[in-house]
Amino acid sequence: MPAWLELPLPDGPVPVVLTRRRRQTIGLRVGSERVEVIAHPQVPLSELEAVLRRRSDWIAEHWRIQQQRKRERLAETHSLCLLGEVVPVRRRAEGRRVRVVHTDGALEVQGVAEGDEAALRTALAAWVKREAQLDFPRRVARLGAGLLRSPSACHLSAARTRWGSCTAQGVIRLNWRLLQAPPAIIDYVVAHELAHLMHMNHSAAFWAQVAALYPDWRVARQWLKTEGHRLFALG
């Protein structure tokens, strides 16, 4: 979408795009690449320009926030947490296909051009998913070895609001992003879902089963509440 105009801000001009839509109010959206103005087709351009001038301080503040978040995302792709440990990420543009190699204590991403951060995150996410598919079933088998009921399957989940789930049929799903967390945190989520094999609720009996499988569950649950957002660096 071509820019409608450039809005002068303290940190430099910002492109503004205009979207015409039937709505009663004038909307403003500040992204990391542009500002979007959403207005009814009959609202004159002069009125929209006046709104931008009046809201320039608000726009400038949110633009700075978006730029900081963008810088943080770029920094995160230069390293990756793997089982709670920070692993450096190196890239080599050479290569006909994209592949990730774990060697010498670092992750080498091949076939991704310098500056293509989206492709880098995609490659790293795919690698983490493959590693999680190997790691998680082993944890489920180890922690669930003494249970009266075994899970029928263990799959990966890409949910953005849940770390795991367990169906009435015994299918356990674990969020692939958990592979970036410390092993103890992964074990807690596994124990949580294994406990659902016996108790499809969050009753006292359920939490007693969780404690039997993983005694420090309260500490792990709090870690996910305070630090879990960091596991979404790859999307």
From TrEMBL:
Every copy of the YgjP-like metallopeptidase domain together lies at 25-226
Q: Which UniProt keywords apply?
A: Hydrolase
GO molecular function annotation: hydrolase activity
Entries under InterPro entries matching the protein: UTP_pyrophosphatase-like (IPR053136), YgjP-like_metallopeptidase (IPR002725)
Task: Specify the protein name.
Answer: Predicted metal-dependent hydrolase
Upper classification of the organism: Bacteria, Pseudomonadati, Pseudomonadota, Betaproteobacteria, Neisseriales
